[in-house]
What does this fold into?
Amino acid sequence: MEYELPYNVHPFNKTDVVDGRKLSFEGYIYSQHGSIYPKEYNGIIIRIRNVAIGEPDRTLLNYPPITNLVFRHWIFGEIYVTEGLEEAMNIDRSSFDLVHPHYLYLQNYIRQFLDEVVFDYTLNDYYRAKRNRKTRVKAENEMKLLKRIVKSELGTAFDLQLSDAKSPVVVQNVSKRVVVNRKHPVIRRAPKKIRFTVEQIILLFEIAMTKSEGDIERLKNLFLRSIREWM
It folds into this structure.
């Protein structure tokens, strides 16, 4: 699934028996594109019977400090413990015994959830969707420009079509079509940064060839003029 939004909410719930006692919790991790401000809202807060235990934990329950350094500042989460974990609270009731089995289980669960769901979404789904969207927009803008060139140089009756033709560009006067093969080796083998430029040059040359009607001097003048105008 492609995510287009710059944020997402990842729910979770789990019930298990840990060290002979039931541990049950649910919650969510909110992730966004960019750091959360104010910073007090960055981290994970644990609630037992709906009561917050301390402040949001910005270490994400001691998530490895050298992993996902950027993305860890983009999230906020709440864990609602409905059963268990109370024995893991320290006497101040604002922190936990970090080696208690229930706390260690919760810590490992959240760490795995962050790696496999939250950060995987941020790194792959969000950025992949963003990259695909940019590629789509770029391709649409390129096609608009090619169509504008065709109609301006050959007349509004001409249309541009994509096809797997043997040549990269073919001008068909009778059917009033210009067929472009964007998969042609001449175009595909060009470096990505200049691929569209190569495509434009070939199109302009083929149009100039058609309009010159075999006159080499006119071909040269038409081609150079179109290069100055469109490139």
